[in-house]
Every structure is written in C-alpha cells, then in structure tokens.
Request: fold
Amino acid sequence: MDDQPPLTPLETKLKHLLTQRHTNSTLRTLTLTSPSQADFSSNDFLSLSTNSSLKSSFLQELHRADLPLGSGGSRLLDGNSHYAERLERDVASFHGAEAGLLFTSGFDANAGFFACVPQRGDVVVFDALVHASVHDGMRLSRSAKTIPFEHNSVADLRRVLTSLVEGEELGAGRAGREGKAHVFVAVEAVYSMDGDVAPLREIVDTVEDVLGDGKGGGGGYVVVDEAHATGVLGPGGRGLVCALGLERRVFARLHTFGKALAGNGAIILTSPTLRTYLLNYARPLIYTTSLPFSSLALIRTSYAFLRSPPHAPLAAHLHALIQTLFHLLTSPARSPAFTSQLRLPSTCPQSPIFSIQLQDPKALASFLQKREMMVRAVVPPTVPEGTQRVRVCLHAGNTVEDVRRLVGAMGEWCEEQARLADRAKDGGGRELEEGERKEEVVLARL
Reply:
C-alpha cells in the first residue's frame, strides 16, 4: 500500500476538510449494528423489520402477484404498473387523501416537491428544524423567498406571516390576502432529532387566519412531513394529520415507508391536480428508476399490517414504553450526577424519540454500546452547535427490562464522570498533572 499514487490537488483539499471534521469530532463514518444489541437507535419503531408474521405475509404477496422483480425503468417510461397505481390509491384512502404519488425516498419526495411546486413570487415559510431535504428543495425552487420561523412557535409563525401580508412580498394589507402569491408553510409532524410533535392544529388555524385557505387565489398552503409519525401516531398509525382531523385543511403530506413500516420509498398525498403536476415537473421522480415490485409488495404488506388487529397492541406497548422511559429518566430518585450531566426532556414525548443532550455524547454512546445497547450520538452539523445529544429511539420490540437497563447504565456512566471530576483535584485542591488528566479521560472511555 506504500506505492499509492500521490493525491491530486482536489483530493488534498478534500482530505484537509475531512481532517478538520475529524479534529472537531464531527467526521461521519459507517458503523455496523450487532444483532445482539438492544435497539435504541433505529427508526424501526414498530419492530416490523424482525416481525415473523410480516415476513411471512410479504413472501406470500411476492408469490401471489407474480410480477417481475425489477421496476424496468422510470415511472414515466417502463416502471409503472397497475399494482403501483392500486397501491397509491389504497394508501391515499387509508390516510383520507384524494390522491397519492409514490417516490423512491422521502428525501426525493421533499426535494422534488419544494423544487417545483412553489412558483416565482411565492414564499416558503419553514420551521427552523425542518429536514435537510426541504432545504435542498428550497435551494432549487423558483420561489424568490424562503423564511424560517422559530421551532414549533405558533407566535413566531404568526409574526412572519403577518409581516408578509403587510410587506412588499404579498402586497400591503388585505391586498396580500387577495393577491396571486402563494405561501407554503413547511413543518414536520414529529421532528426526528428532538422527537417533539408540531402544534399542527394551531399552525393550520394561524395560516388560515392570516392568509386564508388558498381557495380564493393566493393564500396559505400547509405541507406536513409525516415521516416519523407514520405507523406511530393517529388511528391505526395514520399520522398526526388524521389524528387531528385536518385531512381537508392540509395541502400536502409526506409519508415514508422506511421507518415504522420496515420498507423503503415514500408517498406524497394531495389532490389529483397536484399529483399530475408532480408527474410532469418533479425531477427526482421523472429521472429516477421507480420502486421495484419487491418494494411495492412490502409497502402493501405493511399497510395491511396497520389495518390488522396485531398493530394495536404493538402501538400500545410502544406508547407505554415511552411513558416508562420518561418516568425513569425524571424520577426524583435519580442522583445529582445524573440530572446535572444530562439535559432531559421536560415533558413526556408523544413520539418514541428522546433527545438527551450532554457535553460528550460520543463517550456515553460508546459506554452503552459496550453494554450491548445500540445508542447513537448526534453532533453538529447534524444538529445545531451546543445541542449535541444521544438520540434514544424506543421500539415495540423493546421490553420494560431493556428500558430499565438502559437508564441504569446511563446512571453508571454519570456517576463515573462525577467521580472523575472529583478526582481531578486532590484533597488540597491541587489539579492533576496533564498526563494524569489524559489517563483519566482514557479510562472513562473504556
């Protein structure tokens, strides 16, 4: 390996950038998960990826339909089928929508939507923590203006929308309501890094109050990413929009199949007109090979599972675990070391995602992984500076004992960190020499 060719000038620059990330402890790498580890990391919220009943039904569906395994091309060429179109109609019906359009991923769906639907002169107002795919779509959009509002703040959303109505973007005063510009409001049902749920009813009420509902020209259009709510929130896992009865007041919804549904791909739910528009203008759909039959069959099988009796007890168990973990984390019996080092959720999450912020999440994640618990650290640039955390995801396949063991191990780590801090100074207050401090840090990470 010593005779490798020298790096090109470009590779030298790229290596320098990677070295900077490594120095800042923000370098991303691929890791493997051991099957023996308790899963507190993946988005497989219902544990369907290991559900034997789902696997059996999936194999039966593959044999029953007897279609080619591959897709054959893009959806607009040879990648379409009656099977795909029936699936779109069935999924749309399940979620109470008029129509749906399949995409190969949620990222493609979001990026494609926001790149082509907002027109020149339109505005996209987005929650500050909305997904990266929305940001990529907005960068490619014809829209002249994109404006963030404070995360989950209805008051700040109203401020932004009111300033648009009163400003030049939409025309002053009531003319803004009756003009031709459109305002898209992009939010998520459940935010993937924090696990908090959008105040969606209040958001929709505010948009309609300030901008109207879009039926008389101009107006506001709410777009909801339901990726982390699919299968988890709402009746039968239909999502937050259905849970609140907002199906007719939301312009478009994104549901993905790669999380709680154990598959891959996504669907945008909206009107028949917008479905046809996306077929003609959404480049990630037009120029991408469509989902193969095997993926479509798994999506159909997973939705059949959501409609079946076994879904309810799985979802109920998952939500019970959420309560259990919150009570264990916030128990008055927790030690001062635990509560001082970990920034815990102040209220019980409605979703299975817990954000536990701390100074060195990688050290805690490594400690837990060595105890056969898969927990991941999330650091900038994935999350804002100063909000690095371990992201704990619960699953229907977890047990109460798993959760107790997780919290117990976190407590052990916190106590060890407190002891190291106390030992950093001897009884007379003398700080340890540099070499001693480094040795303590190494020991803490073992």
